[in-house]
From TrEMBL:
The keyword Aminoacyl-tRNA synthetase does not apply. InterPro entries: ABC_transp_permease (IPR001851). It comes from the Bacteria. It is a multi-pass membrane protein. The chain crosses the membrane at residues 9-28, 34-55, 62-83, 89-109, 130-150, 181-202, 214-247, 259-277. It is found in: Cell membrane. Pfam families: BPD_transp_2 (PF02653). This is Inositol transport system permease protein. GO terms for molecular function: transmembrane transporter activity.
Amino acid sequence: MDNIVVEALIRALSVGTPLLLACLGAIINERGGVVNLGVEGMMAVGALAAFAVASSSPDANLWLAVGASMLAGAALAALHAVATVTLRANQFVSGLALALIGTGAAGLLGKKFEGLPLFNKVNDWNLGGFIINPFTVAALLLAVVMAFYLNSTRSGLTLRSVGENPAAADVLGVNVGAVRIWAVLAGGSLSGLAGAFLALSYRASWADNMTGGLGWIAVALVIFVGWRPLRAVLGALFFGFLYYLQFRLQGNSPVPTEVFNAMPFVLVLVVLALAGLRGQQGDAPAGLGRPYVRGER
């Protein structure tokens, strides 16, 4: 029984890793007052960039592949930053466009990588009999560091103030636009890192639509966890456990496979509805989704 519980926990942590990384990126975005619905697209281009570098030769450096994924995610996020922060476009429309651009571009450019071997992959670590993935360790550490950064550092307070009341932050000499652009780029790089986990470790291959809607779940997870990094760990673990159940029960149950495939997305709707009923949306930054124009109220 204990082995089953430990196995379920490890699997849930592993499956929940890309959700946690992408959720942390979205938290940084939204703490700065910018909504980015393009997480799915940034994960897709991050996965493609990582696989393209890692599959280029048997001696390819996996660190370069990880760096490429983060740069690709940040590059796509830069389009969103220009559109929403500089040009003050609607953040929701821009984010949706980003998701479509990212997934479409990754699918098109990734055609030539389908079926190619991955010479090296990021293997799990054996820490005293406890098997864990390096991406999972990095995600957990990032959650702790981000919580400390947002709550206990001057720059974290600046980021939060820009998301809560950009006009007040501007009066105090904060460059609101620069802070928001930095937040969007940081969020994009973490989404790209989530894609690298899929390409270099979890699936260790490239296939069109390999993100499978995880980016959309990560966006919803931000609301569910109340924009708090440490809560995001529990939220990712919860949804990771759902995916683990999905894999374990498929083929061992009379329930159709489609029901298990839809389970995580149905639960997203349920938890968001529960969050709305108990007023958790009140935890959102006050300036979230609103473009800032100096002198306007």
